[in-house]
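Researcher: Next sequence.
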Amino acid sequence: MISWKVRSGTCRRVATVSIGTVVVALAAACSSAPPTAPTARVERGTVAAKVTATGALTAVTSQNLGFPKGAQLKEVNVKVGDKVTAGQVLAKLDTFAFDQALAQQRAALNQQQAQLDKIVNGTAVGGARATLDQAKRILSATQSNVDAQKKANSDATRRARVQLDFDQEQLDKARQKLDFDGCSQDGLDDEPSSGRRRSSDSRASTGSGSDLTSDAGGAATSTCGADRQAVTTAERQVLASRTAHTEAKNKENVDEAAGKVSVENARQSVVTAQNQVNSTGTDRPSEIAAQTAVVNSAKAAVALAQRDVDNSVLRAPVPGTVSAINGAVGEFVGSASSGTTALAPGTGAPIPSVGAAATSDQSGNSGAGLSATRPGGNAFLVLNDVNTFQVVVPFEESDAAKVSANQRVDVTFDAVPDLTRHGTVLSVAPAGTSISGVTNYYATIVLTDTDPRLRTGQSAQAGVLVNALDNVLTVPNTAVIRKDGKTLVNTPGPDGQPVLVPFQAGAVGDDTTQVLSGLRDGQPVLTPQAKAPGS
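Model: Next structure:
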């Protein structure tokens, strides 16, 4: 908006005119002649339409840093406003509890490792194999002993059989001799029947010879007695041999049965030892695997405990500026910190409870200005990259439909009225958010250049250029006249009177209109002059 105020005597005129990108303002003194109309020129520039919205300035990267586990704060090595480098130590916790937990986990790991070593280096498998080998040797020895005993018994039985057969043969011979000698086999006759027959025959033939008969009978009696004695002896020998054979046979049978039992017992010992070897050999890999898993679990516990110790030192993950610290040395901080002190920028002193200004990182308290809002919310430390900023702005749905990634943006700031910075649309939210009953879509705009006066949390107005055409002939929209379907401008005539000149218009922006033909570069055009009320 450009205003002209002209005074001449009692004459007072005020004219207010809105013009485009280039305006030449002419002030005319109050006189009897009419004032000269303001002029502009046709020139090359940009034709673009903008959609605007207001949001808040924030650092491109903002990280809330803290400790994973609570402990007493031992050191704070930075202050609010300090610039830090990646890896720089920011703060430290007291590690007593973490060190003790680490020592316990290491002891548990050593115990489980010792158990694993015991299983790996154990002699159970070797002992089982040795027992199996011994059982096999015992089985072999038992089988050999049984076989030897069986052979000995078989030989003894065979010899007893031979002796029995021999004795039986002798008995048969003795009985045959007894029969041959005509002796009674019942052992009751004193003389053999043949002798008797011979005696009778002798008496019958001679009618005498009693002496001869007496001699023959005595000899026969003696022979029969010897034969009977021989038979009796042979019978006794046969009986003894038969008994010996029976005993040998019985012993052979008993020893064979006992040998079978011994062999089977030895074979069972081999089977048992083999099963033990198989069981031990099968279980050992599983036991090693199970114990290895326990050891690995213990190692993981040690690693976690070591991580707790390592995490007691807070380091800057990236370069940046410390924008908030919530915790003083001696206080307990961590994943659920409470009651910590918000420190003032550049010092270790706390922010006063009254009269302090809240930052854009505020959270939690929403009182009516009675106390300072805790910077950084519940985060122990907030680290920002203040070298690059972005603006997060909500666009109404009609404007959001025109906004897309990579579009150019002009950004102005309420806190720095004379500053304009350029940016680029990074992204537009795919889902809408209701703000005061109106659907809006948030867009993130990254500034391509910055300024040392910019701060996180400042209000910013973003104008997104949509349908922009660069380096084209333009004429201010305030000079364009549309009549009867034609597009015209007033140009200064030779006599100073305006002359209507038609031209072919192209794209129409918020401030300028594209000239396709009919006007030349640098040609002056007249813009309307507003009249003061009552003039």
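Model: Residues 124-301 form a domain with the Helix Hairpins fold (CATH 1.10.287). The helical segments are 96-120, 124-180, 193-206, 210-310, 397-400.
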